[in-house]
Write the structure tokens for this entry.
Amino acid sequence: MRPKDDRKWIEAVINHKEMPVPYNFMFSPVSLKIAEQRYGKPIEDTIFLPLRMSSPKSIKPLYASCEIFGPTAVDEFGVVWSTNAIDRGSPAGPVLKQPVLSGYRFPEPGLPYRFEDIEIWCKQQKDHYRIIWAGDLWERATFMRGMENLLTDIILNPDFVMELLRGIADYVLGTMEILFERFEFEAIALSDDYGTQKDMLISPSLWRKFIKPLLKEIFEYGQKREKRIFLHSCGNIIAIIPDLIELGLDILHPIQPEAMDIFYLKKEFGMDLCFCGGIRTQDLLVTGTPEEVRSEVKHLKETMGKGGGYILEPGIIIQADVRPENLYAMIDQAMNL
């Protein structure tokens, strides 16, 4: 039976208490329309999501409309993105063409437009578990410099990489400061991909040198303000999960089952972390049958949810290639319909 208080429900799950398994779904524009056709609007209310997520505004929305922005859109950091009607697009080229920051000015985290709707949102969602995305770190650096360039810089231009990551971290910390001072919510989130499907993008030792100290600052700042910490990283990051536990991470997302053995993660780290994710998106939701989807969701709830510490969710934002009947089967099974 679903608990009545969403905030107490999620806190109990994070604290590894045996509870009904909560669920969360993030939709791309195409999948959102498909979900709304069946469940109605607003989707977070019609399917009773216990988690609610928001973020400061950007001049380039996550899903920038081609009709509004044209073929490209530019974000606060000067990164030019391609636009389309299906997904978030991709960086069209690095804003930092050379490994130097001279002449580059980081954006100001406190600009009023970024926060103009958050107070209303926090009040509207006060009965649910509210998570606010504060930004990204390593991932942002790859957008600004380009992945290949940044991976080369980390060896050839390490001081530049340190300076770049420091500037991005300061932007995140500045954002957090404003969020903490002005609004009431439960958790802070950081989006920061570290892995490929087989391994990490950089070695664990380099991650510990360049990224871990800045994550420590970000996590500690949130912890001092009594906020839970939610971290998104795609890919296989098993090598640094003990480090994330050491830093005090509360929720790890999206634990892609195509990249990691999530049942091993539950066995090895299940008492130290809450895992959020785990539904296969690369094959099951695209080519599987509704019966297979229901069976997998049921298995995840029973296995990953044992002893708490698990929130059901797909391993990525639900994309346009997910079959409608599988989308419905996943949501219905999550809600025990």
